[in-house]
Design brief:
Helix content: under 10%
Largest sheet: 7 strands, mixed
Number of helices: 0
Radius of gyration: 13 Å
Order of helices and strands: EEEEEEEEEEE
Structural class: mainly beta
């Protein structure tokens, strides 16, 4: 059974940090690129960052470049999203998703997680 489970969300003040984790099971993690997406209230889902299956390539949305860092540990079937210097506009539900190709795009997702809420207060 495929599982994609995000954790690490919560409430943080502007300027603070959070680290999101995405643990997967039920498919061969090493074969998949992983992406983080987010959806703020009243807005469309957008891509935040993604990482290739090997971890050798990464991609970031302009809005998070220099503040967020994506990484993966294939031995633990886990992807991380380190989020620093958080801003109120980063408030959203963050979703982890697995795709066969890098970069990971919303239309080519094989598996989605259910999301974790990040709230940044001003």
């Amino acid at each position: 059974q495929v599982q994609v489970m995000e954790s690490g969300g919560g409430l943080v003040q502007a300027g603070g940090s959070l680290r999101l984790s995405c643990v997967v099971s039920g498919f061969i993690f090493d074969y998949y690129a992983i992406g983080w997406f987010r959806q703020a209230p009243g807005k469309e889902r957008e891509g935040v960052s993604c990482i290739s299956s090997s971890g050798g390539s990464t991609n970031y949305a302009d809005s998070v470049k220099g503040r967020f860092t994506i990484s993966r540990d294939n031995a633990k079937n886990t992807v991380y999203l380190q989020m620093n210097s958080l801003k109120p506009e980063d408030t959203a539900v963050y979703y982890c998703a697995a795709g066969r190709y890098f970069p990971v795009v919303a239309g080519e997702i094989s598996y989605w997680g259910k999301g974790t809420l990040v709230t940044v207060s001003s």
